[in-house]
Give the backbone structure.
Amino acid sequence: MRFFSDNAAPAHPRVLEAIAAANRLDTAYDGDDWSRRLDGALSDLFATEVRAFWVTTGTAANCLALAALCPPYRSILCHRDAHIEVDEAGAPAFFTGGAKLVLLEGEGAKISPAAIADACDAIRDDVHQVQPAAISITNATEYGLTYSGDEVAAIGELAKQRGLSLHMDGARLANAVAFSGEDLADLTWRAGVDALSFGFVKNGGLNAEALILFRTEFADEIAVRRKRAGHLLSKGRYLAAQLLAMLDDDLWLENARAANATAQKLGQAAAQRLLYPVEANEVFLKATPDEAARLTGMGFDFYDWGPGQIRLVASWDQQGDAVDALAAAIAKL
Amino acid sequence: MRFFSDNAAPAHPRVLEAIAAANRLDTAYDGDDWSRRLDGALSDLFATEVRAFWVTTGTAANCLALAALCPPYRSILCHRDAHIEVDEAGAPAFFTGGAKLVLLEGEGAKISPAAIADACDAIRDDVHQVQPAAISITNATEYGLTYSGDEVAAIGELAKQRGLSLHMDGARLANAVAFSGEDLADLTWRAGVDALSFGFVKNGGLNAEALILFRTEFADEIAVRRKRAGHLLSKGRYLAAQLLAMLDDDLWLENARAANATAQKLGQAAAQRLLYPVEANEVFLKATPDEAARLTGMGFDFYDWGPGQIRLVASWDQQGDAVDALAAAIAKL
Amino acid sequence: MRFFSDNAAPAHPRVLEAIAAANRLDTAYDGDDWSRRLDGALSDLFATEVRAFWVTTGTAANCLALAALCPPYRSILCHRDAHIEVDEAGAPAFFTGGAKLVLLEGEGAKISPAAIADACDAIRDDVHQVQPAAISITNATEYGLTYSGDEVAAIGELAKQRGLSLHMDGARLANAVAFSGEDLADLTWRAGVDALSFGFVKNGGLNAEALILFRTEFADEIAVRRKRAGHLLSKGRYLAAQLLAMLDDDLWLENARAANATAQKLGQAAAQRLLYPVEANEVFLKATPDEAARLTGMGFDFYDWGPGQIRLVASWDQQGDAVDALAAAIAKL
Amino acid sequence: MRFFSDNAAPAHPRVLEAIAAANRLDTAYDGDDWSRRLDGALSDLFATEVRAFWVTTGTAANCLALAALCPPYRSILCHRDAHIEVDEAGAPAFFTGGAKLVLLEGEGAKISPAAIADACDAIRDDVHQVQPAAISITNATEYGLTYSGDEVAAIGELAKQRGLSLHMDGARLANAVAFSGEDLADLTWRAGVDALSFGFVKNGGLNAEALILFRTEFADEIAVRRKRAGHLLSKGRYLAAQLLAMLDDDLWLENARAANATAQKLGQAAAQRLLYPVEANEVFLKATPDEAARLTGMGFDFYDWGPGQIRLVASWDQQGDAVDALAAAIAKL
């Protein structure tokens, strides 16, 4: 009964089927039938012309995008708890050639226009201090909170005023959409997002993520950077096929809704213990070491989130029984 | 009837089955059951203790290894036609932080100890010139030739004398082994190889390659560099499972033998036209534009290798009929 | 009457004389008579065998040292207000190839062993988080405070326990020595410092700083990195001669004492306004915009250090009259 | 009697005087009176608006320029014997973040438009091969040959057609001008040069070189990169003053003429032994080891340029007696 991470869940059967269906001779790299359909399929989904690239990790998607948006000698503003800061082993510096992350505060890993403006204002405009070039936000955040389209648009507006680019780490964007019901376009390019890491692996994919460029002028550079970073797979059709399968009949949204529903159920059972409102598929709880141990003893698996805190993550495939059992167990603690 | 590239071929059914069998909840990254078996399985195969890492591309395997073997301010000696020089978009410089490739000559993309020694001798030992740190050889080479164990050992011996590390790009090492029947250990660590990129994708794999460290002291660094380069997949079990499937019952060797046999058949049909002896699974031919056009007109697909030259690559799954037809067509040109 | 920066002051006449005396034909780079005396002269000064390199900026000295002490994929712990973080345009990331600065808090830009230990403890020991490799402290700090030998030794001891290297930015180390009277050796290598940027330019030099390695095994790497960064000057003798002139008869110490004495005089006049105790040659004061404007109106030049704060820096050559005038003006505000 | 390198020569007295004259308090970095005059002085010299930066080495000038002209994932075409390839410790890769040098052949280290075009044509236009971004030529070359304005213009024209930038390493541009009498503008920006490293140190300077941007839109980026590389000196006035002294009354040209005249005298004495025509201030001779030893025995110092070859370099300050003696000695060999 595992609530440790959505990365631990299996891939959706339709994803596996798509891989099997792609198992025939075709052109290498991204010249195959599936890869060539990606731009169109994702342009349709986002209701604007995009350039889309499959990659195998969110880190690759994030950092290829950031490398195009930020030169080596400038900085990216992000939350102190952003995945790019705490969980990517310094990959942003590697891909950009040394760009700096400027760390902002904000409840639940969300950043506000005010925090961004303050951070920019604190930087002297001279050659001694590193000047900002981009903002990166995560939606849903590392604490399962979501930005609304209006919130993203406020950041996008500020970015434009300050001459900054805007990147969105959408490892769990599907969950954000499933939560608010807002339109993908409103949450992204209409709100000023220039590049998006659109996550599928945590949401029932196998090993394909999508890097989406709304500023398509960066596409050629990204294509080269992807190859140079060893992220251009020779049999790319197996990645493209996964993404197309996730888009078919909105499987991405269906999976995210399932995961969110589980999180809501757990959140309701733990209402008194919640560290953050439950919006996407993550639930952060206060729990004493003793309480945590009791849950573990009952066979539940989760992440120890520091002193007195635990993290539960719901996956697309969570079994109703296990969820009910965990909800009941939490309620009884 | 495609002889364009072994990258275009499908994955072997047993590889797909292994992916399906791995499609259950397990620990993320490389903490899963399959990933944890890799070191052991590859140590058995190589008859020595190794540390093994799955990655998704040969470029990643090559360049992660080179980054551990060569600091940013030194150089790697390789053939002028090496994949790392001509087909990886400058990835060695990206991963190493700017190390230089020193390009050597040699027939059929093979380099000799003498060429290596000459290149080293030509470098003044001072801070103005970039000092060498490593040698990288490709076996089988980009022209389908192979190094014997003795040939590798001669290079390994020289490397030791000169204080250089030795990397082998084994994108088609399976084909080299299938050609000579030599032992994997004799071709690698016993001959002085420090790190090996062991290719599976061109040989019936789907998207998993293995980076093998014979100098296991680099393992921790490689693990960090892999993550930092976005090459630590969250659902790593699907990669590990592929590799294990390729090792089971020596599927890797069986596939390579099949591809080599096809190449031999084509090579015999084209004996008068061969640019290089046929050893692994590649056949390089002299063919006038008119001759090439005739083959294309008959439905055969291959790589135009510059003026008057074509490249045929045999895959593990080549159909006997198509091979016979191409052999006959070449013989009749 | 300038108290803006010690960088604005002229060079000491003996430094200029040394340059003139070096103006004859000699070997290029650092093969000349003066450069070859540096290791010995600085080994004598520090009472241990060191390897010494002239460079032209503190940024170069700091970042060449950090590049040797920290690989691209690890981090350097320093104060949030450290020069390497706020005033070097991201040079540490450039020279190291992307190493991260982890920013610590601490009064007056000093960091404590406790702050270092806490920062280390907060880093999960896995490949997802950037692991620390080095500590960098500034003595005297960016706020003119000094570390005693015991304080440095406590940090050095912790560094050893944690497997971290220790770098000291000594842009104003001379002022720290002049303040405490402690021995250079006690403040550096005996306290566990591995590499030191020993500043001369702010202290009456013209354009030569010294990078001192107490861990001499890094010398060859540093020599290469210096060249590769364009910091190996062809007529190096003019830099070496400057450094030797600063060492002769302890000119470095004499200059620092003069600057410190000026700072003390200003500090006493401004005792009620001091933001930090005056230890080295910097004086930070509370001053309303109106007060600051009055001082400016009287012809005094200084750095506006944010709302309600000003910074005065004393140079080696400050005229007694101007100092008395400023002290009187402050006292009367 | 040293003919080893023009880097070994002393600085011209007027350069030293200028340094002494700058030895008064002024603004740090490049806000001082001298630095602020550079753009104007060099714009006048080149008869067009330029942006000029002092740096301390040719390596820094070359590589800062190349970093602005070439992204990390593209390449720079240069001669196999170019200083940036053989004598800068890999600095181009360091400053650019991994750009590749593509090495061209050509007599006397000169490259031709045909060689450039061939090299470009040999690069497949795809993401697997590194695409070119810039050309770098050296004038005078590493073998003392010069490009005429027409020759540079032919390369500049090709660069424009191919979408490439053009950099000139002018470490000895003064000697090229002194040789041909051509106009600086005709040899540089009118011929399509985008950025120029204008050397002074080999020509009587002390430690200041000039980086000249004809494409002034790169100036802000260069200013940041200079700081980030540790090349923004705090007391920049001493560098600017050197450059201004070299420009005053065309001292740069006078010095270059003197050095060239010495080279011509030596070249005439060695007419039968010349490996290259003598154009700038370098003379390459055939000389057996025995002959070389005889010259050495007579007190002449020079560079052993490989088997049977020696290099003599004339400096601005060479004594007529020594020159006559060497000329006579060579003639008598």
Summary: The mean pLDDT of chain C is 96. The two ends of chain C are 18 Å apart (CA to CA). The beta strands of chain C are 51-55, 74-79, 100-104, 131-138, 165-170, 195-198, 209-213, 282-286, 303-304, 309-313. DSSP finds 14 helices and ten strands in chain C.
